[in-house]
Amino acid sequence: MLTGALLILAPLFLGFALPLTSRRAMTVIHYLVETLVYFILGLLGVGLGQMEGLATQLGGMAVQVLVLVVVLFVANMAGLWLFHRWQPMTPVHGTEGEGPGYRRLFMAGLKPLLAVTVGLLAGFFLLPRLPLIEDVATWSLMLLLFLIGLQLRNAGLSLRKLLMNRQGLGIALALTLSSLVAGALLIPVLALPWHDVLALASGFGWYSLSGIVVGEALGPAWGGVAFLNDVLREIIALAIIPLLISTRPAMAIGYGGATAMDFTLPVIRSSGGLACVPVAIASGFLLSFLSPVLMGIFLSLG
């Protein structure tokens, strides 16, 4: 497991090391990333659908997801609130134009669930057992991480400036530390080794990564739990950002985790104004790097 868990980090750093100047290539990479995400989620669903004793495990999975979501939410909000009290940030409210279309964003947030559901139904009712599905998922994930590394390197962002954004760095660290504290509290509840629970707590909203990586290490049931935990983070973030960002921007930006630099960024921009954008990009960028690193390290300890 050590080699496999750490091997997923290599494509990410390799992609980040390669500069690109072609806008056309970046456009192609964008669509490839989107396609790979849904393909990987479909494979996760197929693995769940072909899991032995699926029906008997669904209830337990639902409880595990609920516990993870609630404990992480409370811990993250507490950690981000403490950071807000220490380093308060006053946003400039967005007033230009219309909002980002919350209904459209919520529907987009449900698409990952739909992809997994389609895969689950296909695996349970239609497809024969596929012995190579884990290998295909692994190689697909490695390609996805390579492409995401390229995107991060060539997004016109200065790593030095991102690391020097004190608010973004502080939010990322607050979310990371509070998630690890939540993971430590959940060790006796989830009845897994401590390093596996900390890996579950380190997804930071990156559901396509956590579902496959955890699924390969701990089995499809835990992969499904990791996926649902992180996709629900994204959906909850869409709901709480407009409510919190005017008074506690660190909590609003931080809870979205890695999604703050992409999926939830339009809501942050619309609700909090331009002043929140560089902070959100910095925190989301740093969490996008920390998530695979921490998950790889923790799972390699098994």
From TrEMBL:
User: Transmembrane ranges?
Assistant: 6-22, 29-49, 61-84, 105-127, 139-157, 169-192, 204-228, 235-257, 277-301
Q: One Pfam family this chain carries?
A: Lys_export
List the InterPro entries: LysO
Keyword set, alphabetical order: Membrane, Transmembrane, Transmembrane helix
Query: Could you tell me which PANTHER family the record lists for this protein?
Result: LYSINE EXPORTER LYSO
Protein's recorded name: Lysine exporter LysO family protein
Source organism: Marinobacter albus
